[in-house]
Amino acid sequence: MLSLDDIRAAAVRIAGAVARTPFLHSQTLSRLTGAEVWLKFENLQFTASFKERGALNKLLRLTDSQRRRGVIAMSAGNHAQGVAHHAARLGLRAVIVMPKGTPNSKVHGTQVLGAEVCIEGSSLAEAAAFAQELAAREGLVFVHPYDDADVVAGQGTVGLEMLEERPDLDCLVVPIGGGGLIAGIATAARALRPAIEVYGVESKSWAAMHQRLNGLTVSVGGDTIAEGLAVRDVGELPLAIVREKVREVLLVEEETIERAVVALLEIEKTVAEGAGAAGLAAVLEYPQRFRDRRVGIPLCGGNIDSRVLSAVLTRGLVRDGRLVRLLVMMTDISGSLAKVATLIGEAGGNIVEVQHQRVFGIASVKRPEVEFVIECRDREHAQALLAALQANGVQVRQG
After folding, report:
1. Does domain 321-398 have CATH number 1.10.287.600?
2. Left (φ > 0), alpha (ψ -120 to 50) or beta: where does 279 sit?
3. Would you state the CATH architecture of domain 54-142?
4. What integer best gives the mean pLDDT of the chain?
5. pTM exceeds cut of 0.85
6. What is the β-pairing status of strands 350-357 and 294-298?
7. What is the CATH number of domain 4-50+153-315?
8. Is the CB of residue 10 less than 8 Å from the CB of residue 153?
9. Which of 236, 360, 385, 392 lies at a C-alpha separation of 20 to 30 Å from 110?
10. CA 326/CA 332 separation, integer angstroms
11. Within the chain, which residue ranges are assigned CATH 3.30.70.260?
12. What is the dihedral of CA 395, 396, 397, 399, to 10 degrees?
């Protein structure tokens, strides 16, 4: 098993090359959740992820012979960038195997950092198998993203920093992919504060750790915004540590992860990827469990594809009633559109988009359907705007 001394040694080893990120209290998220929320901004690392810590600790532990051979890793993105960045700093050859479907931003980011990137396999497990074959063929040192004691020790420095700054924390809520981060954090936290409770977080569609802990057959899959959580084969070392030191693994909905991404951007003005926001998602989905408790949450990554982020933000506006679609049947005469637009404006709505439908799905060519996309203050305002239109004789429904 890993020890606190291993993690402290890793902290000394990586000091100066990896940022000691801010650990800040969020007043607004605390009011929103009913807990005292503290956020560890690992998305502010150079590669925007905690993965640098474990990657660098592992690379610094290599022998001179191993360094000359070069390293290889399999990763969906963040471990890849951590290995690539620090291998380049240390003058090592780095080969990264990434599964198909890895976000373009993470592939590009890894290439920019100087690694040789291979896209292979439809899953992380298939990418790992190819990476092991290539390592054996070319004599490269395999750097596992989570099932390695040196990597886990490096990740544990996140927990070490959190408890050094806030030794009175009641609990930690940590996302789980392969388990390296929570294993390291739990080891440090429970050694420094034995009474602290550590909770893991997985997406309901990718709950391999939860299933292993409960003796269930691992059955995972499906699309997820949290690619960093999409791991089928959790590490055996992390699994053993989690069994001993983690209170419970909580499962969250995809929608809640999206809500957490939006909340962090709008409230904290910080970008988190899906896996990076999963800790906050658990506090949002299980508020009673954390109410009135001092909760530490690592924002473990910020590498989210710009297109995905845009879609998540727009869906958040729709979910909160701040962006609504109204379908209006109106008489096809001059001034009809202007009249409805004026009523929307008088009710405080901002028209984002208007589209006439004169051909498909209309009852009469004389009564076309017009679709309005309108920006509102909130759901109550949207309902008031709808009522104002109906009160003025407008035939309208929310789409």
Report:
1. no
2. alpha
3. 3-Layer(aba) Sandwich (3.40)
4. 94
5. yes
6. unpaired
7. 3.40.50.1100
8. yes
9. 236
10. 17
11. 321-398
12. 130
